[in-house]
Amino acid sequence: IVERDAELPMFWVDTRLDGTFTTDMVINNNVITDIYSIDNIDQEHRELLKSKMKLSHLKYGYICNFDHTKFYSEWYVRDNETGIIDRVKLLH
Fold this sequence. Notes:
Blueprint: E1 2-12, E2 15-27, E3 31-36, H1 43-56, E4 60-66, E5 71-78, E6 85-87
């Protein structure tokens, strides 16, 4: 299930806040997806995705870039107990 302009709950540490925020795309209610068409994914794009994961408590994050010459993507996973977000290292 792909939801565009998805409204997600907001958390501060473990407390759910009254409001929500909207993100571009969520897959299966647990993957925040950021899609770009730019020259390069920079650290600020990664940090934005991680912030959305922290704020929503969603487990997975996916960032991808379609530029005119190539496709590039990265996956992230959030530990539910510690809140730490790590980049998933995929095998080539």
